[in-house]
Amino acid sequence: MIDFANVGAITLKELRDALRNRWFIVFTVAFAVLALALSALTQNSGSLTRTVSYSRTAASLINLVMLFVPLISLTLGSANLVGDRETGALFYLLAQPVSRVEVLLGKYLGLAGALLATLTLGFGAAGAALALQGSLQDAGSYLFSVVLAYLLALAMLSLGFLMSALARRTTAALGGALFLWLLLVFIGDLGVMGASVAMRLPIETVFAVVVVNPLQMFKIASILTIQASLEVLGPAGMYAADQFGGLLLPLLLSGLVLWIVIPLAAALSLFARQEKFIVKRSAPA
Amino acid sequence: MMITAKNLSKRYGRALALDNLSFTIEPGEAVALWGANGAGKTTTLRCLLGVQGFEGELRVNGIDVAQNSKAARASIGYVPQEARFYDMPVLETLHFYARLKKASAARVGAVLEQVQLTAHQNKRVSMLSGGMKQRLALAAALLSDPPILVLDEPTANLDVQAQRDFIQTVQALNQSGKTIVFSSHRLDEVIALGSRVLVLSEGRLLLECAPPELASKLGLHRWLRIWVAAQHKEPTLRLLNEQGYTFMPNGRSVYVQVSLGGKIAPLRSLEQASIPVEDFDLIEGEMSPLEGNHD
Fold first, then answer.
1. Taking the C-alpha atoms of A144, A150, A153 and A155 in order, what is their torsion angle to the nearest 10 degrees?
2. Which of B52, B82, B183 sits opposite A275 (nearest CB)?
3. What is the reported pLDDT for B295?
4. How is domain B221-286 classified at the architecture level of CATH?
5. Residues near B44 by Cβ (< 8 Å), separated by ≥ 6?
6. Above pLDDT 70, what percent of chain B?
7. Could you say which of A16, A92, A275 has the minimum Cβ distance to residue B85?
């Protein structure tokens, strides 16, 4: 049985650790400044209508989220368990009256809270700038975009924790996280595009391959949210709109939720069963 | 019985770390686990904590460890050889572990007082000395006032004075009724603290005796423990090796086997080689031969 008081205690500790983490502070400030700068820059085109201007800002924020959020979520998550194991702090923690499920959930929720606070700050700053300029045409869709960014951050954090549960060393976990980031951000986009041209893949295959990537799920869902049309995505987007219609957005949301739940459940399962996760370096005497 | 182990076995891959180990510990006893590296001391303590799987039956304070390790851990205060805390201030560290142990916030102040760390409560853990960290680990272990204390070579990395202070504190806790289970390589520590010794060898119980009988039953030797600064450790080991000493590095110190009339000889050799000795201690009756080291 899970003791949520223990989960809460570990969550609070992780939140405090994140707030003291220099890299996390740098990321938070950079994300907020970039979000604010993007909203200011995309508003300065006087010839555009406010609706178009808002769409451009939202699209820029989507691209910012797709680059930054997976990077910080994957690296924070992947360094967490394995880092504590390397210092020996994890063994000492597990020698207390806590279960491994409580430890992992507490750590996940603490980092998730820190990440969501960062996103809220970045989106909040950009949203406030838009509102002040009178360009925030649809606050509801803007807020929904923020929720999608939250889901993406949580999915990437789950994948990071899975890496951390699999790896024996922090360097290996971080290397894996960076590789996964490259795979999802660049190869998952440009690679699929190139392969579809070179191999003349049918459109439904291209769509299926694209949509497996949580980043693309986030992207398609975000575009649907801000302009309700997928023409911008070309034939694959048209195909998706034709094939799934109004079901597309709920399907994409479900997909993102699965990307949160499945890697986290796998990390929990590994962490709960394997003894290597607690034993530090040398074999016990 | 406070602790009952029946046919406890544990494998790491092909290696058998514990081999049908059975023992019992009464409430209020202070039982030492003695043995060379690889004898199974740490593995036994880890089984008591329920942080790794095992075969056999193990009950701690009436709780089946295999069935409910978390409840078993609630009956135990654990002090490792070198506690690895998160780098928070001392007070925050204790409040964190107090929440996990369901101890009241008032206990934090009480245990800080008990281990004499009140003056250091606002320091970060990374700023504490080794002795202070061990006292902090003891404070954390005492937060929920558990009936059992499990100590895994708790003084291995401490200087002589810190060792004595630590042992005195644990003696007082034992006299107040706590059951103590500890592993040690030091006969003086076992005699000072233990009421009974379980001698382990290759995961089996080799011998069970009173601490004063241990030296004669095992044919133990005299050891000189020498502390040198980290940068002088390698030259020290090289010198001792060149001069044919039997020695064993252990944390920040080195154990050197000495004869009755030759206690000063290793210190003189180090002085001649311009290697400054920070501290030393004579230990009667350490086990021999020693295998490997405890770094």
1. -90
2. B52
3. 33
4. 2-Layer Sandwich (3.30)
5. B5, B8, B18, B21, B33, B183, B200
6. 95
7. A92
Which is higher by pLDDT, B159 or A42? B159
Low-confidence ranges of chain A (pLDDT < 70): 43-54, 135-137, 228-236, 276-285
Q: Environment class of residue A45 by beta-carbon count within 10 Å: exposed (0-12), middle (13-18) or buried (19+)?
A: exposed
| Contacts (Cβ under 8 Å, ≥6 apart) of A190 | none
- Per-residue pLDDT of B254-289, as tens digits, reads 989 886 567 788 999 999 999 999 999 887 665 553
Average pLDDT value for chain B: 90
What is the pLDDT at residue A232? Answer: 64
Residue A116 near residue A189 (C-beta atoms within 8 A): no
- Span B208-234, pLDDT tens digits: 999 988 877 877 777 889 999 989 999
pLDDT score of A281: 43
Q: Which of A165, A79, A154, A16 is nearest to B99 (CA)?
A: A16
CA distance A220 to A237: 8
> Is residue A75 within 8 Å of A69, Cβ to Cβ?
no
Most B CBs within 10 Å: which of A12, A85, A96, as the mutation test of the B interface?
A96
pLDDT of residue B162: 85
CA distance B107 to A281: 34
**Token pair recorded at residue B45:** 């303590």
Residue range(s) of every CATH 3.40.50.300 domain in chain B: 3-218
Locate the chain A residue with the closest alpha carbon to B141. Answer: A96
Q: Which of residues 200-259 of B touch A (CB under 8 A)?
A: none
* Contact residues, chain A to chain B, C-beta under 8 Å: 5-6, 8-10, 13, 16-17, 87-89, 91-92, 94-99, 275, 278-279, 283-285
Output B45 or A134, whichever has higher pLDDT: B45
Query: Cβ A98–B78 below 8 Å, yes or no?
Result: no
pLDDT at B120 over 90: yes
The dotted CATH code for B3-218 is 3.40.50.300
- Looking at chain B, the domain(s) classified CATH 3.30.70.120 span 221-286
A276 to chain B: closest CA residue:
B52
Task: Supply the pLDDT for residue B128.
Answer: 94
Mutation to test the B interface, candidates A7, A92, A105, A107, most B Cβ within 10 Å: A92
CA distances A15 to A12, A20, A106, A158, B126, Å, are 5, 9, 10, 16, 20
Residues 46-85 of B with CB under 8 A from A: 46, 49, 51-53, 70-71, 73-74, 78, 80, 82-85
State the complex-level ipTM. 0.84
